[in-house]
Write a structure and sequence with these properties.
This protein has 71 residues and is mainly beta. The chain is built from one helix and five strands, in the order ββββαβ. Helices cover 10% and strands 34% of the residues. It holds the Pfam family DPBB_1.
């Protein structure tokens, strides 16, 4: 997984899927490509690359509440 790319990991979505992710706290949105499996932490549905987290504005927090929609 390239940390600066707009990619993410999801347990079940097909690899190569595109997902629109919106940060519920600030309304920022990014489109990412699923290229890995995970996360394997209970309660988490998506593991974003550092580049995607930065664009969504929560890089310092480590995690946030999101909305996601498969494109």
């Amino acid at each position: 997984m390239n940390p600066s790319a707009l990619t993410a990991a999801h347990r079940t979505l097909p690899l190569g899927s595109r997902v629109k992710v919106t940060n519920q706290r600030n309304g920022k949105t990014v489109v990412v490509r699923i290229n890995d499996r995970g996360p394997f932490v209970r309660g988490r549905m998506l593991d974003l690359s550092k580049g995607a987290a930065s664009r969504l504005g929560f890089i310092g927090a480590g995690h946030t509440n999101i909305c996601m929609a498969r494109l």
